[in-house]
């Protein structure tokens, strides 16, 4: 049954996506059911007895699941009827990938009790910053829309979506709440991996590409929060730092696992 759950979730997301924009309640209901099925699928996929199953598809699906969670909960502020055009396509692709690329099993035998917590915090950090990046991308579109950039016309359906969003200042406040939470979780992830590398991960600490990229992403988000606090950074600077930090983090985690699993056909452990 485990292999069918991702495709069932994807089918429900697709059904919600194909509904007309005016059928907001039906789309929201279908999205909520798809979200629940995806949650069950992720739990059964990741927690495999005395082992954890991890991989690029799992991390991507978890990130998009968190993104859907945030916008379902904020349905009163963010009209799901319009946002589904941007939100649901990547969600249905991500959940389908877990069936096609199941990842690798990491046995918990010999691991300390910190190991599952390290993995869980890492997933939460990545997922939260994915939401922030998605939020920043929407803000970038909203900023262009508000400034009437005729050189880059916006399509009518996107105009309708953007008109339903809260004020840009409100969107920015939400963005910084997400970044702050994500930065705290990322800090715990990075430094638990560095300080307790051998105990948590079973290997001695080493400066590989994942470590370097993770630290670089952490530094970008840290600079952004300091710039906001001390210099009052806003607008395009904030969006550039947010999207750059997320892309570096994407390369560190999902990118490295994609290369290992899909291109090199190697296990993660």
Explain how this protein is built.
By secondary structure, the protein is mainly alpha-helical. 75% of the residues lie in helices and 3% in strands. It contains ten helices and two strands; from the N terminus they run ααβααβαααααα. A two-stranded antiparallel ribbon has the order 1-2. Residues 258-265 have low confidence and may be disordered.
Tags for this entry?
mainly alpha; flat; 269 residues; 2 strands
Q: Rg to the nearest angstrom?
A: 19 Å
The portion of residues forming beta strands comes to under 5%
Instruction: List the strand order in the largest sheet.
Output: 1-2
Total beta strands: 2
Mean pLDDT: 77
Shape: flat
Structural class of the helix and strand makeup? mainly alpha
The major β-sheet equals: 2 strands, antiparallel
Topology:
Elements: H1 4-18, H2 24-46, E1 51-54, H3 56-73, H4 80-100, E2 104-107, H5 114-146, H6 156-163, H7 168-195, H8 197-201, H9 209-231, H10 235-263
Antiparallel strand pairs: 1-2
Quick structural overview:
The protein is mostly helical and 269 residues long.
């Amino acid at each position: 049954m485990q292999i069918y759950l991702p495709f069932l979730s994807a089918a429900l997301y697709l059904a919600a996506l194909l509904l007309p924009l005016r059928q907001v309640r039906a789309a929201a209901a279908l999205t909520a059911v798809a979200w629940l099925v995806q949650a069950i699928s992720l739990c059964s996929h990741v927690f495999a007895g005395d082992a954890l199953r991890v991989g690029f598809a799992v991390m991507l699906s978890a990130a998009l699941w968190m993104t859907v969670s945030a916008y379902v909960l904020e349905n009163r502020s963010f009209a799901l009827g319009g946002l589904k055009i941007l939100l649901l396509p990547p969600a249905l692709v991500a959940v389908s990938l877990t069936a096609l690329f199941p990842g690798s099993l990491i046995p918990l035998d010999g691991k300390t009790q910190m190991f599952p917590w390290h993995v869980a915090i890492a997933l939460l950090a990545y997922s939260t910053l994915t939401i922030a990046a998605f939020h920043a991308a929407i803000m970038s579109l909203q900023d262009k829309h508000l400034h009437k950039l005729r050189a880059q016309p916006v399509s009518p359906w996107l105009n309708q979506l953007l008109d339903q969003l809260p004020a840009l200042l409100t969107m920015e406040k939400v963005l910084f709440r997400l970044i702050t939470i994500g930065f705290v979780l990322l800090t715990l992830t990075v430094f638990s991996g560095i300080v307790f590398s051998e105990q948590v991960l079973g290997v001695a600490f080493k400066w590989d590409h994942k470590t370097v990229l993770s630290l670089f992403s952490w530094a970008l988000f840290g600079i952004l929060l300091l710039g906001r606090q001390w210099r009052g950074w806003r607008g395009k600077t904030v969006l550039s730092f947010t999207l750059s930090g997320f892309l570096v983090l994407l390369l560190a985690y999902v990118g490295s696992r994609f290369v290992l699993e899909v291109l090199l056909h190697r296990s993660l452990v």
